[in-house]
Every structure is written in structure tokens, then in C-alpha cells.
Write a structure and sequence with these properties.
161 residues, 4% strand
Length: 161
């Protein structure tokens, strides 16, 4: 058991206060006062990322709802952007070859699916997890609604007043 007799692991994962504000489901009685509150703006992508990954990073930062991505989220965004960059590069390689890019001929002469198709599938599945965590899919956005003042900082004195 965790401190305070609370059990973690069963049921749904608790949502951060920022996500509850964006969804419009925040209630004063359900605010986690001990929740870490990230601050600052998410900047430019790391220089070591590929150009396609940096492009995906910039696209995500410029199109994410206000108050959702912070510097603390950079690692998750970096993983998503790297997957998105590789996905685009592999898909471009397949598209250049046409239908022939989806098939390969084994040394025995048998046609089989290209390993690049497995790479595409694996990257898409990995990206899907990151996208749902960050609200980048239509389904995850459907569970959110932007309310006026959703990005304002929580003031603990408001709970007392």
C-alpha cells in the first residue's frame, strides 16, 4: 500500500489537474494538491533529432491545446516525434517503390511481405500510445473540452476562500 492507505494500480490512472481543466471535469474536492505543476514553454526540438522528427515536434507544439505540453513532457514528445519521423521516412521509401516496396523475394524465389511493413506497423502502434497520452487523436480529444481559463495556475488560497 502507498502512503495514506491508498492502493494504486487498480482502476483507472488518475488524470492530472491540467487535463481535468481542459476536459471541464475539474472539481475542487478532486484536486491533487501534491501534484507536481510543471511550468515554462516547450521550446525547439533537440538538435540531434532528424529533420523529419524535428518537423513533427514543431507541428505538435504549434497545434497542441494551450497549457497541455510543458518542458517536463519533452521526453514523451521526443519519443513520439522520433517515431513520427521514422514512420514518414519508411513510408516514403515504400511509396517510392510502389507496390514492389511492400513485397520482397526470398532467396528461394518466394514473395513475402517486406520487413518495412512490420516497421511501419510497429511505429504506428507505438505512436498511437503516445498520441492518446498527449491528446493527439480524435478519440482522446473527444474526451476533452477547452473551457475559459483552463490554463490558469491553481491558487491554493482559492480553496480556503
Amino acid at each position: 500500500m502507498a502512503a495514506g492507505g491508498k492502493r494504486y494500480g487498480a482502476g483507472r490512472k488518475p488524470l492530472p489537474v491540467a487535463v481535468k481543466k481542459i476536459k471541464g471535469t475539474l472539481q475542487k474536492c478532486r484536486i491533487n494538491l501534491r501534484e507536481p505543476r510543471p511550468s515554462g514553454l516547450l521550446g525547439d526540438p533537440p538538435a540531434y533529432m532528424t529533420e523529419t522528427a524535428q518537423e513533427a515536434w514543431r507541428y505538435a507544439v504549434s497545434n497542441a491545446p494551450a497549457g497541455l505540453l510543458f518542458p517536463l513532457d519533452a521526453a514523451v514528445l521526443e519519443r513520439w516525434a522520433n517515431c513520427a519521423g521514422m514512420y514518414r521516412e519508411v513510408l516514403a521509401k515504400i511509396n517510392q517503390s510502389g507496390i514492389g516496396g511492400m513485397l520482397i523475394k526470398t532467396p528461394s524465389g518466394v514473395l513475402r511481405r517486406s520487413p518495412l511493413m512490420d516497421v511501419i506497423r510497429d511505429l504506428a502502434m507505438e505512436m498511437k500510445g503516445y498520441e492518446s497520452e498527449m491528446g493527439f487523436t480524435p478519440a482522446s480529444r473527444g474526451r476533452m473540452s477547452v473551457v475559459p481559463g483552463a490554463v490558469e495556475e491553481h491558487n491554493p488560497w482559492d480553496d480556503i476562500a
